[in-house]
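# nightly structure sweep
# worker-07 picked up a monomer target from the shared queue
# config: single-sequence mode, recycle default, output format = structure tokens
# input follows
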Amino acid sequence: MPPQSHPPCPRRERSGARIPPRAPGAGPRKRILLADDNEGVLRVLAAALAQAGYEVKGAADGAEAWEALHRERYDLLVTDLDMPRLPGWELVERIRADGLTLPIIIASGSYADEILRDQAQLQISALLSKPFTPREFLKAVRIALRPPEATARAPGRSPSESNAGSLTLSQSI
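# output follows
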């Protein structure tokens, strides 16, 4: 009797979040760096991202995120603004001054005037106002990670869905 084929067992990240099996031939997983001084927020966002198939690393503050960005390559940074040692808005300014071009999502309960004023210049992909749902968060991540040519010509999308640079999610459900 031939052996039966079983679907692959789901993998789990350290956080316990289930990672769906990757499709054969799928490229490498996108790497996302999360910077937030609230451990609970880090855990929830990391679990949502891991379950959606992303590789995730957490940083407890902006200084730790800055160091991580210089040790490893990431496809996206998600950062809070109000953090010890190095606030999120200073982290974003350093990243851009250093010539790093990765997409950045700011997820914060408050926005520094510098970020709101300089959003376009600092190339912020999205501003998320806490609280937000995991669904809103993952939508912003997917939009921020799209290649520029895909966002420019996405058919049937509203301007906020087609232009990641202007996406601002602040609604909570």
